[in-house]
Amino acid sequence: MALPMSVEHLNLHYGSFHALKDVSLQMPAGQVTAFIGPSGCGKSTLLRCLNRMNDRIADCKVDGKVLLGDTDVYRDVDVYTLRRHVGMVFQKPNPFPISIFDNVTYGLRMAGHPKRSELEEIVERTLTEVGLWNEVKDKLDHSGLSLSGGQAQRLCIARALAVDPDVLLMDEPTSALDPISTGLVEELATKIAERHTVVIVTHNMQQATRISNTCAFFYLGELVEVAPTAQLFSDPKDKRTEDYLTGRFG
Ligand SMILES: Nc1ncnc2c1ncn2[C@@H]1O[C@H](COP(=O)(O)OP(=O)(O)OP(=O)(O)O)[C@@H](O)[C@H]1O
Protein backbone atom coordinates (compact mmCIF):
# COMPACT_ATOMS: atom_id res chain seq x y z
CA MET A 1 0.00 0.00 0.00
CA ALA A 2 1.36 3.43 -0.88
CA LEU A 3 1.86 5.65 2.17
CA PRO A 4 2.88 9.30 2.10
CA MET A 5 6.22 10.40 3.52
CA SER A 6 7.02 13.76 4.98
CA VAL A 7 9.87 15.52 6.71
CA GLU A 8 9.41 18.26 9.29
CA HIS A 9 12.10 20.76 10.22
CA LEU A 10 14.81 18.32 9.25
CA ASN A 11 18.39 19.36 9.93
CA LEU A 12 21.35 17.13 9.18
CA HIS A 13 24.99 17.72 10.10
CA TYR A 14 28.02 15.77 8.89
CA GLY A 15 30.33 16.76 11.77
CA SER A 16 30.26 20.56 11.74
CA PHE A 17 28.93 20.75 8.15
CA HIS A 18 25.25 21.69 7.98
CA ALA A 19 24.08 19.61 4.98
CA LEU A 20 20.26 19.93 5.33
CA LYS A 21 18.79 23.12 6.69
CA ASP A 22 15.32 23.04 8.26
CA VAL A 23 13.73 21.06 5.42
CA SER A 24 9.95 20.45 5.56
CA LEU A 25 8.36 18.60 2.67
CA GLN A 26 5.43 16.30 1.85
CA MET A 27 5.80 13.38 -0.55
CA PRO A 28 2.22 12.37 -1.44
CA ALA A 29 1.16 8.72 -1.56
CA GLY A 30 1.02 7.09 -4.97
CA GLN A 31 2.86 9.92 -6.72
CA VAL A 32 6.38 10.53 -8.00
CA THR A 33 8.25 13.28 -6.15
CA ALA A 34 11.54 14.40 -7.72
CA PHE A 35 14.46 16.09 -5.93
CA ILE A 36 16.48 18.35 -8.21
CA GLY A 37 19.31 20.82 -7.70
CA PRO A 38 23.02 21.33 -8.32
CA SER A 39 25.62 18.83 -7.21
CA GLY A 40 26.19 18.82 -3.46
CA CYS A 41 22.89 20.54 -2.53
CA GLY A 42 21.77 17.61 -0.34
CA LYS A 43 19.38 15.61 -2.56
CA SER A 44 20.91 12.20 -1.83
CA THR A 45 21.42 13.10 1.82
CA LEU A 46 17.70 13.79 2.18
CA LEU A 47 16.75 10.65 0.23
CA ARG A 48 18.97 8.58 2.53
CA CYS A 49 17.23 10.02 5.61
CA LEU A 50 13.94 8.55 4.38
CA ASN A 51 15.12 4.99 5.07
CA ARG A 52 17.89 5.85 7.51
CA MET A 53 20.76 5.00 5.20
CA ASN A 54 22.77 7.74 6.96
CA ASP A 55 22.63 5.87 10.29
CA ARG A 56 26.01 4.25 9.82
CA ILE A 57 27.84 7.43 8.84
CA ALA A 58 30.03 8.52 11.74
CA ASP A 59 29.39 12.09 12.88
CA CYS A 60 26.06 12.26 11.03
CA LYS A 61 23.44 13.93 13.25
CA VAL A 62 19.77 14.17 12.29
CA ASP A 63 17.24 16.47 14.00
CA GLY A 64 13.58 16.91 13.18
CA LYS A 65 11.03 14.39 12.01
CA VAL A 66 10.83 11.92 9.13
CA LEU A 67 7.35 10.39 8.89
CA LEU A 68 6.06 7.36 6.98
CA GLY A 69 2.32 7.90 7.24
CA ASP A 70 2.08 8.72 10.96
CA THR A 71 5.12 6.66 11.96
CA ASP A 72 8.25 8.55 13.02
CA VAL A 73 10.95 6.51 11.26
CA TYR A 74 13.70 7.57 13.68
CA ARG A 75 11.69 6.78 16.82
CA ASP A 76 8.82 4.35 16.27
CA VAL A 77 10.34 1.61 14.10
CA ASP A 78 13.52 -0.44 13.84
CA VAL A 79 15.67 0.07 10.78
CA TYR A 80 15.11 -3.44 9.33
CA THR A 81 11.33 -3.10 9.46
CA LEU A 82 11.61 0.40 8.02
CA ARG A 83 13.59 -0.83 5.00
CA ARG A 84 10.96 -3.43 4.21
CA HIS A 85 8.48 -0.56 3.95
CA VAL A 86 10.84 1.95 2.29
CA GLY A 87 12.94 0.26 -0.41
CA MET A 88 15.81 1.80 -2.35
CA VAL A 89 17.35 1.58 -5.81
CA PHE A 90 20.81 3.05 -6.34
CA GLN A 91 22.61 4.87 -9.13
CA LYS A 92 24.74 1.89 -10.01
CA PRO A 93 22.80 -1.39 -10.40
CA ASN A 94 23.91 -3.66 -7.56
CA PRO A 95 22.58 -7.19 -8.19
CA PHE A 96 23.85 -9.65 -5.60
CA PRO A 97 26.25 -12.42 -6.77
CA ILE A 98 23.49 -15.02 -6.41
CA SER A 99 20.88 -16.31 -8.85
CA ILE A 100 18.27 -14.08 -10.47
CA PHE A 101 15.58 -15.98 -8.52
CA ASP A 102 17.42 -15.50 -5.23
CA ASN A 103 18.00 -11.81 -5.97
CA VAL A 104 14.26 -11.20 -6.34
CA THR A 105 13.34 -13.26 -3.28
CA TYR A 106 16.19 -11.96 -1.08
CA GLY A 107 14.09 -9.62 1.08
CA LEU A 108 11.26 -12.14 1.42
CA ARG A 109 13.62 -14.91 2.51
CA MET A 110 15.31 -12.55 5.01
CA ALA A 111 11.86 -11.86 6.43
CA GLY A 112 11.32 -15.62 6.80
CA HIS A 113 8.98 -16.09 3.85
CA PRO A 114 9.06 -19.87 3.51
CA LYS A 115 6.95 -21.30 0.69
CA ARG A 116 8.72 -22.01 -2.60
CA SER A 117 5.45 -21.95 -4.59
CA GLU A 118 4.59 -18.48 -3.26
CA LEU A 119 8.11 -17.27 -3.99
CA GLU A 120 7.82 -18.56 -7.57
CA GLU A 121 4.57 -16.69 -8.02
CA ILE A 122 6.07 -13.45 -6.64
CA VAL A 123 9.18 -13.82 -8.85
CA GLU A 124 7.05 -14.16 -11.99
CA ARG A 125 4.80 -11.26 -11.01
CA THR A 126 7.57 -8.80 -10.10
CA LEU A 127 9.81 -9.71 -13.04
CA THR A 128 6.78 -9.24 -15.31
CA GLU A 129 6.07 -5.90 -13.67
CA VAL A 130 9.61 -4.65 -14.44
CA GLY A 131 9.44 -6.05 -17.99
CA LEU A 132 12.17 -8.64 -17.43
CA TRP A 133 10.23 -11.92 -17.22
CA ASN A 134 10.43 -12.85 -20.90
CA GLU A 135 14.13 -12.07 -20.99
CA VAL A 136 15.09 -14.17 -17.96
CA LYS A 137 12.37 -16.78 -17.36
CA ASP A 138 14.56 -19.56 -18.76
CA LYS A 139 17.63 -18.60 -16.75
CA LEU A 140 16.36 -17.79 -13.28
CA ASP A 141 19.22 -19.86 -11.87
CA HIS A 142 21.85 -17.72 -13.64
CA SER A 143 23.78 -15.18 -11.60
CA GLY A 144 22.33 -11.70 -11.25
CA LEU A 145 25.78 -10.53 -12.33
CA SER A 146 25.23 -12.04 -15.81
CA LEU A 147 22.72 -9.35 -16.80
CA SER A 148 23.34 -6.16 -18.80
CA GLY A 149 23.31 -2.84 -16.93
CA GLY A 150 19.72 -2.04 -17.88
CA GLN A 151 18.51 -5.55 -17.06
CA ALA A 152 20.43 -5.49 -13.76
CA GLN A 153 18.78 -2.21 -12.75
CA ARG A 154 15.33 -3.68 -13.51
CA LEU A 155 16.29 -6.76 -11.45
CA CYS A 156 17.21 -4.45 -8.56
CA ILE A 157 13.84 -2.70 -8.91
CA ALA A 158 12.12 -6.14 -8.90
CA ARG A 159 14.07 -7.06 -5.75
CA ALA A 160 12.89 -3.86 -4.08
CA LEU A 161 9.26 -4.37 -5.19
CA ALA A 162 9.07 -8.05 -4.19
CA VAL A 163 8.55 -7.13 -0.52
CA ASP A 164 5.72 -4.77 -1.55
CA PRO A 165 7.16 -1.60 0.00
CA ASP A 166 5.03 1.48 0.70
CA VAL A 167 7.72 3.72 -0.76
CA LEU A 168 10.44 3.24 -3.34
CA LEU A 169 13.44 5.59 -3.23
CA MET A 170 15.43 5.94 -6.45
CA ASP A 171 18.81 7.70 -6.37
CA GLU A 172 19.66 8.71 -9.95
CA PRO A 173 18.51 5.25 -11.11
CA THR A 174 19.21 5.85 -14.80
CA SER A 175 22.48 7.78 -14.73
CA ALA A 176 24.50 4.63 -15.54
CA LEU A 177 22.08 3.38 -18.23
CA ASP A 178 21.79 3.72 -22.03
CA PRO A 179 18.84 5.73 -23.47
CA ILE A 180 16.64 2.67 -24.14
CA SER A 181 17.11 1.26 -20.64
CA THR A 182 16.57 4.79 -19.26
CA GLY A 183 13.21 4.96 -21.07
CA LEU A 184 12.19 1.57 -19.67
CA VAL A 185 13.07 2.56 -16.10
CA GLU A 186 11.25 5.89 -16.48
CA GLU A 187 8.08 4.13 -17.70
CA LEU A 188 8.46 1.73 -14.83
CA ALA A 189 8.76 4.50 -12.23
CA THR A 190 5.46 5.98 -13.42
CA LYS A 191 3.80 2.55 -13.32
CA ILE A 192 5.23 1.75 -9.88
CA ALA A 193 3.64 4.94 -8.53
CA GLU A 194 0.20 3.45 -9.15
CA ARG A 195 0.80 1.21 -6.12
CA HIS A 196 3.78 2.70 -4.29
CA THR A 197 5.01 6.18 -3.40
CA VAL A 198 8.10 7.02 -5.46
CA VAL A 199 10.82 9.53 -4.54
CA ILE A 200 13.54 10.06 -7.12
CA VAL A 201 16.78 12.08 -7.23
CA THR A 202 17.65 13.16 -10.74
CA HIS A 203 20.05 15.49 -12.54
CA ASN A 204 18.04 15.10 -15.71
CA MET A 205 15.49 17.91 -16.00
CA GLN A 206 13.64 16.21 -18.87
CA GLN A 207 13.34 13.11 -16.73
CA ALA A 208 11.88 15.14 -13.86
CA THR A 209 9.27 16.66 -16.20
CA ARG A 210 8.47 13.28 -17.79
CA ILE A 211 7.91 11.27 -14.65
CA SER A 212 7.31 13.40 -11.57
CA ASN A 213 4.08 14.87 -10.24
CA THR A 214 5.84 17.08 -7.71
CA CYS A 215 9.30 18.58 -7.94
CA ALA A 216 11.44 19.94 -5.09
CA PHE A 217 14.41 22.21 -5.85
CA PHE A 218 17.31 22.27 -3.36
CA TYR A 219 20.24 24.67 -3.11
CA LEU A 220 23.07 24.52 -0.57
CA GLY A 221 21.10 22.27 1.78
CA GLU A 222 17.95 24.37 1.65
CA LEU A 223 14.61 23.41 0.10
CA VAL A 224 14.11 26.48 -2.07
CA GLU A 225 10.83 25.62 -3.76
CA VAL A 226 8.40 22.74 -4.15
CA ALA A 227 5.45 22.66 -6.56
CA PRO A 228 3.58 20.50 -9.04
CA THR A 229 6.24 19.73 -11.65
CA ALA A 230 4.65 21.52 -14.61
CA GLN A 231 4.17 24.62 -12.48
CA LEU A 232 7.72 24.60 -11.09
CA PHE A 233 9.17 24.42 -14.59
CA SER A 234 6.83 26.94 -16.22
CA ASP A 235 6.52 29.44 -13.39
CA PRO A 236 9.30 29.15 -10.78
CA LYS A 237 8.75 31.56 -7.90
CA ASP A 238 12.34 31.83 -6.69
CA LYS A 239 15.14 33.39 -8.73
CA ARG A 240 17.52 30.54 -7.76
CA THR A 241 15.07 27.94 -9.15
CA GLU A 242 14.70 29.91 -12.36
CA ASP A 243 18.48 30.32 -12.73
CA TYR A 244 18.99 26.59 -12.24
CA LEU A 245 16.22 25.56 -14.65
CA THR A 246 17.52 27.93 -17.31
CA GLY A 247 21.03 26.54 -16.95
CA ARG A 248 22.62 29.60 -15.35
CA PHE A 249 24.32 27.33 -12.81
CA GLY A 250 24.35 23.69 -12.00
N1 LIG B 1 29.34 10.95 4.36
C1 LIG B 1 29.53 12.28 4.26
N2 LIG B 1 30.38 12.92 5.09
C2 LIG B 1 30.57 14.25 5.00
N3 LIG B 1 29.98 15.05 4.08
C3 LIG B 1 29.13 14.46 3.23
C4 LIG B 1 28.86 13.05 3.26
N4 LIG B 1 27.97 12.75 2.27
C5 LIG B 1 27.70 13.93 1.66
N5 LIG B 1 28.39 14.95 2.23
C6 LIG B 1 28.35 16.37 1.85
O1 LIG B 1 27.01 16.83 1.99
C7 LIG B 1 26.64 17.68 0.90
C8 LIG B 1 25.42 17.09 0.20
O2 LIG B 1 25.80 15.88 -0.45
P1 LIG B 1 24.76 15.01 -1.28
O3 LIG B 1 25.48 13.81 -1.79
O4 LIG B 1 23.55 14.83 -0.47
O5 LIG B 1 24.43 16.03 -2.46
P2 LIG B 1 23.66 15.77 -3.82
O6 LIG B 1 22.80 16.97 -4.03
O7 LIG B 1 23.00 14.45 -3.81
O8 LIG B 1 24.88 15.79 -4.86
P3 LIG B 1 25.08 15.01 -6.25
O9 LIG B 1 24.03 15.56 -7.15
O10 LIG B 1 26.47 15.42 -6.67
O11 LIG B 1 24.95 13.54 -5.98
C9 LIG B 1 27.87 17.79 0.01
O12 LIG B 1 28.58 18.97 0.36
C10 LIG B 1 28.68 16.56 0.36
O13 LIG B 1 30.07 16.80 0.18
TrEMBL record:
GO molecular function annotation? ATP binding; ATP hydrolysis activity; phosphate transmembrane transporter activity
Annotated Gene Ontology cellular components are: membrane
Q: What GO terms in the biological process aspect are recorded for it?
A: phosphate ion transmembrane transport
**Keywords from the UniProt entry:** ATP-binding, Nucleotide-binding, Translocase, Transport
What InterPro entries does this protein map onto? AAA+_ATPase, ABC_transporter-like_ATP-bd, ABC_transporter-like_CS, P-loop_NTPase, PstB-like
Pfam families (UniProt xref) = ABC_tran (PF00005)
Which residues does UniProt call coiled coil? none
Ranges for domain ABC transporter come to 5-245
Name assigned to this protein: Phosphate ABC transporter ATP-binding protein
**UniProt organism field:** Olsenella porci
Q: Which gene encodes it?
A: pstB
